[in-house]
Amino acid sequence: LLGAALGAALTDTGRGLLFAGALAGAVLLSVACNVSRHVVGGRWTIRRQTAMRAEVGEAITAETQRMQSSVGASHVGTVLGSDISRIAGYPIAVMRWAAAMVGLVIVSVYLLWLSIPLALVVLVGVPLFMWITQLASAPLEARQEALRDRVGRISAMSSDIALGLRTLWAVGARASFLARLQRENRRAQGEGLRLA
């Protein structure tokens, strides 16, 4: 559109103004759609997160005995804190992926119209780059999962400490429990450094 507007402006003033107006309208429409997408998507994601947290809370309340024996409170906190945000954002990610695919098709057609070698470089190079990036990020995701698990263990220990502090003092186990907590903390730091 920009090339057509510039070409028309150089050859014919009337058509140039028409193309310039069309270009300005396209830019304004694009900005309005982008802002609307952010506002609507953000509100929808927040509503979905709230609903999912309520659903998980109700499930935990209904299954308290079974949950206490199989899942620690810290893991539930991790799910409520960070995992639900990711899960709630999934539909938005799917919409962005679909928009990216439409954009890829439009750009592909345009590039094929401009230059076939350039189009082939882009159409082969972009997916290849994305695949290599995915391969490179797999170890990072594994480290992130290990760190999340370690932080969950430390949170569980902290909960145990808060609940049983008086008992630890009474039986004289404070020093051994403190050493265990410090050991887990150092392991979590190591996981965090490997993640970084």
Write a structural description.
It is a single chain. The chain is mainly alpha-helical and 196 residues long. Helices cover 95% and strands 0% of the residues. The chain has 7 helices and no strands. It has helices at residues 2-11, 13-62, 64-70, 73-88, 90-114, 116-171, 174-195. It is elongated and about 95 Å long. 2% of the residues are buried.
Quick structural summary:
The protein is mostly helical.
Which short descriptors sum up this protein?
196 residues, mainly alpha, elongated
- Which quaternary structure do these chains form? single chain
Structural class of the secondary structure composition?
mainly alpha
Rg result = 27 Å
Shape from CA axes? elongated
Q: Give the overall pLDDT as a whole number.
A: 75
N-to-C SSE series? HHHHHHH
Quote the distance from N terminus to C terminus. Answer: 44 Å
Helical stretch tally? 7
